[in-house]
Design brief:
Elements lengths: L2 E5 L10 H8 L3 E8 L11 H20 L5 E4 L2 H12 L3 E5 L4 H16 L3 E5 L20 H9 L40 H6 L4 H16 L1 H4 L12 H5 L5 H9 L5 H22 L21 H9 L5 H13 L4 H14 L4 H11 L5 H11 L15 H8 L4 H6 L8 H4 L7 H6 L15 H21 L4
Parallel strand pairs: 1-2, 1-4, 2-3, 4-5
Helix pairs in contact: 13-14, 15-16
Bound molecules: flavin-adenine dinucleotide.
Length: 479
């Protein structure tokens, strides 16, 4: 029997896995393979919390393969070396994989494809991770920079449909790749036990995914109304499953399209398209991961302030809504989208710290850390990305808190030291009378920090910095 490799990467599922299904349909004996070398993809490589997720998603996929009579082969080392070693040991003549879109992945996949083809190995590449490939949605041959225009154009094109279900029985061929040991040998799990809270918050398996998928009909009824309120469970929480391809956007879209029409459904489909847009932008503008896409911002006078950065990372800024978001992130590996916007804006505009520092922290702490969505999100907050909010539009963290966490439930959950503070004061504890603070058992500066910056001052400072940047650019100095 001829042998083929099915190389898994960001597509850790059996159903709607075009590469796997095509390999199986070819009639060859299929060897599922996962290769790992930390940092091989640079900033696109999973790190920190995302590696924890990856470990569990792989364990679950391996178990699903074993139930069907197969298994995953885990290999350590550069992907190219692993594939070549696997071909040599197993006698495989064909390799199947699903396409990735980031620049690091492209740098890795394209030479490997050439190398294999030159060696007479069949290479079969499928589309699996997006509804529409980045080169399919173009305007006069150009890519889109504005989301609304992208969304309008994309909506007119057919979306990829799920490729089908995996067979109930799988058979491993005689030829085998070298086995680099069990999954544990990849060293994805962190050495210190900082992921306990993440483990309590998530079930990174197909079973955990199915619970969320079953919740979609209920969630979508009020998604349009409540999706911006972090205390309410009105977003899907599908992002890490999508990140690692345990579910494809095509599968999600299919489930959603079966549901009755309504504003929540439309709004959700639009949000899914932000993920597509991020990949579209990254594919056409790989510099998204390195530099501000608005070149003016190369002249922005960012501050250096390690103490402020640390306070932000630890959720100790003295602004409860910011701290709640940052502690949700640290404790559960995920943060609600509205909180990402508020906490991110605070870093960039109130603290005037480079958005890259925020992007790096998120890449290490989010279970859904995805370079395209993350860097697009941060460049958007920094005012320098495509379709970004203008820099002079500065969130007031207290007003955002009053609007999107009006009863303070989110704050009370993640900043428990403020739990007994009456709602009237919870958004800005420093404005509360001493007596109120004392009744709630809080002494500011001891139990909870005073604000590390005055928002009105920070706002003026940010606007001045923007003005300095603009005058530097129009001067031509340093340009
Ligand atoms: P839902 O509201 O249920 O949306 C469904 C899906 O649509 C999400 O799972 C996600 O895949 C996609 N989506 C929704 N909003 C966005 C968006 N604004 N941009 C891109 N895709 C979106 N998302 C990531 O998946 N990985 C990241 O690393 C990431 N970093 C971000 C960094 C910043 C600074 C900001 C502002 C946003 C970031 N996002 C990122 C986008 C968004 O916050 C998350 O996708 C969303 O919070 C995930 O929760 P959910 O699955 O419940 O979303």
């Amino acid at each position: 029997m001829s042998v083929a490799l099915a190389w898994f990467r960001d597509d850790l599922r059996l159903d709607d896995n075009p590469a796997l299904l095509e390999a199986l349909r070819s009639g060859m004996g299929v060897i599922p393979l996962f290769a790992w070398q930390a940092e091989e993809l640079g900033v696109e490589s999973p790190s920190g919390a995302a590696r924890w997720w990856l470990h569990h998603a792989l364990a679950d996929l391996d178990a699903a393969l074993r139930e069907r009579g197969s298994r995953m082969f885990f290999m350590r080392g550069r992907a190219q070396d692993c594939i070549l070693r696997a071909i040599e040991a197993s006698g495989a003549r064909d390799v199947f994989w699903n396409r990735r879109h980031g620049p690091g992945a492209a740098e890795l996949d394209a030479p490997l494809e050439r190398l294999l083809r030159d060696a007479g190995i069949g290479v079969h590449i499928s589309s699996a991770g997006l509804l529409r490939e980045p080169w399919e949605v173009l305007h006069d041959g150009q890519s889109y920079r504005v989301f609304t225009a992208y969304f309008k154009a994309a909506s007119k094109l057919p979306a990829r449909r799920p490729a089908g279900l995996a067979p109930a029985q799988l058979h491993l061929p005689e030829g085998r790749p070298p086995d680099d040991g069990p999954l544990d040998a990849l060293g994805l799990m962190p050495r210190f036990g900082w992921t306990k809270g993440i483990g309590q918050a998530w079930e990174p398996t197909a079973a955990g995914l199915e619970v969320l998928m079953q919740g979609l009909p209920r969630m979508l009824e009020d998604y349009g109304r409540w999706r911006d309120y972090p205390a309410r469970a009105y977003t899907s929480r599908l992002s890490p499953y999508l990140r690692f391809g345990q579910v494809s956007p095509a599968q999600v879209l299919e489930r959603v399209r079966e549901l009755p029409d309504g504003p929540g459904k439309d709004c959700f489909i639009r949000q899914l398209s932000w993920r597509e847009f991020a990949r579209h932008v990254l594919f056409h503008t790989p510099a998204l991961l390195q530099q501000p896409l608005d070149p003016k911002f190369a002249h922005f006078p960012w501050r250096e302030d390690d103490a402020a950065l640390k306070a932000w990372q630890q959720g100790l800024t003295g602004f409860p809504i910011v701290d709640a978001g940052m502690r949700q992130l640290w404790n559960t590996g995920w943060m609600h989208n509205r909180a990402r916007m508020i906490a991110g804006s605070f870093l960039v505009k109130d603290l005037l710290l480079h958005w890259r520092k925020g992007a790096e922290w998120f890449m290490g702490t989010l279970v859904d850390a995805d370079a395209a969505s993350n860097f697009l999100g941060w460049q958007w907050l920094g005012g320098c990305g495509p379709d970004a909010a203008p820099f002079f539009r500065i969130f007031n963290p207290v007003l955002q808190s009053m609007k999107f966490d009006p009863d303070g439930y989110y704050i009370r959950r993640f900043v428990p030291e403020l739990a007994d503070l009456p709602t009237q004061w919870i958004h800005a504890p420093w404005t509360a009378p001493e007596r109120v603070l004392a009744n709630a058992g809080i002494s500011l500066g001891r139990d909870y920090p005073r604000p590390i910056v005055d928002h009105a001052f920070a706002r003026d400072r940010a606007l001045t910095a923007r003005w300095q940047m603009r005058s530097k650019v129009s001067d031509g100095s340093d340009a």
